[in-house]
Each structure stands twice: as C-alpha cells, then as structure tokens.
Prior knowledge:
The structure is a homodimer of 128-residue chains.
Chain A: E1 9-12, E2 30-36, E3 52-58, E4 68-69, E5 80-81, E6 94-104, E7 108-114, E8 121-127
Amino acid sequence: MNTSLKIIGYVQSDFKKRSDTPRQGDEGGIVATLHIEDEFRDAMDGLKVGMEIVLLTWLHEADRNYLKVHPRGNESIPMRGVFSTRSPDRPNPIGMHPVTITYIDRESIKVTPLEAIDGTLLLDIKNA
Amino acid sequence: MNTSLKIIGYVQSDFKKRSDTPRQGDEGGIVATLHIEDEFRDAMDGLKVGMEIVLLTWLHEADRNYLKVHPRGNESIPMRGVFSTRSPDRPNPIGMHPVTITYIDRESIKVTPLEAIDGTLLLDIKNA
C-alpha cells in the first residue's frame, strides 16, 4: 500500500515562527493564503467564499518523537499522552484547522482564522 | 523533510467492505475497536471513557487519482472538486472521524459511531 503523502499546496502566512502563533485558530488565528499546486487545482471546483472547510496540514516544525507533553506547553500541568491533546508534537504531525473561505481564485484561497505558520504544507481540504 | 506516515494502529470493525458502510459516522456508524501498536501506547495516557476525540485514518481502499466526484456517489448530482466534498477518493485519503470513547484498556480503545471499515489504518488521535 502506498501511503506516501502528496503535497497539494502550502500556507502563506504573516506568522513566521511557531513561537508567534496562537495554539488554535480560534485563539487569534489570522487570514492566510493557501497556494494550490497546479496538478491539484481541478479539485478546487465547488469551493466558494463563505464556505466552512477543514484543512489538513503537515506541521513541518513539529517533533515527531514525543509521546507525552505538558498540555498547552504549560509545565504546571502534568505530562499527558499526546493523543489526549492537540499538541503539534506527535507521531504524525497532521494539523486539523476549521476555517472559512474569504477569497478564492484559480490557484489560491484565503481562509480565516488560521494559526499555521508560513510554509506549512497542505495535505487536504474537506467540506466541514 | 520526512513526511512518511507512521501507522499507530488499525481499526477492527464489523463493517468489512466499503459498500457496507454509511457515508459518515453519524449516519449509521457503529462501535469499533482501535488496536494501538505497542510503541505508541504511552501516547494513550489521559484518554478516558466518555471523551470526545477525532481519529485520523488512512482510507486504504480509496482511489487517490480522483480530483472530481459526484457528491455522495449520487450520479444525479453534477461532479465537483473533491476538496468541496467528504469523498474518500482524493489525493491523500485521510479520514477524519469524530467519535466518543466507550471503553479503553492498555492496548485498545472502543469508539462510536465509526464508519471506517475493518483494517483501516490509524494515523492519529486528537482531543476533539
């Protein structure tokens, strides 16, 4: 079985570093632009301004070796398995982001509120 | 960047074929068992009965070559880009399943309502 991921595009954002970003989109996410690779643009048909979608991303700065973390990076909270958290540090650092489309053209989509940093890889877009 | 997926476990379900299953978990999903691979079990710490979680899976029977589909497999609905649908047939066939934990032990988790078929690969578990 071929489970190798296809990169369908990437995120362009004013958030440049992981330390700049809120922990979730609804905690201070911003408008960001998704650039879709040419070969996947036919899959954008049907997306419209105002539509609620879910982005799946590959969080390229995450550490894949963590099995336990302090929730929300707060060291006063005891460590817990990553599967009971939303930590980006996990075996498969796939981000899940509910957002709304604010603009769309043939090759790009603006969405809000997104907390992913500039250069984050895009894996999928789904109807919410 | 290493984007190769780690398989953290797999789904055991009474749904054996894709044609048996509802289109979404809330349309007739059932109780299914998640078997977690030994090396990832420490990441289960903190999961509890009653907790709402989101599973990310690899839909191993999906066709990755589709960019457009008839929504819900209904040929009377015009074809649309897969990114505006929830079709399993898409460039990266990653399933997203909101479920509730009904049982947990050291190596397995029962969840409901799940529509994924027997043998579906498990990629991630997140706090909902």
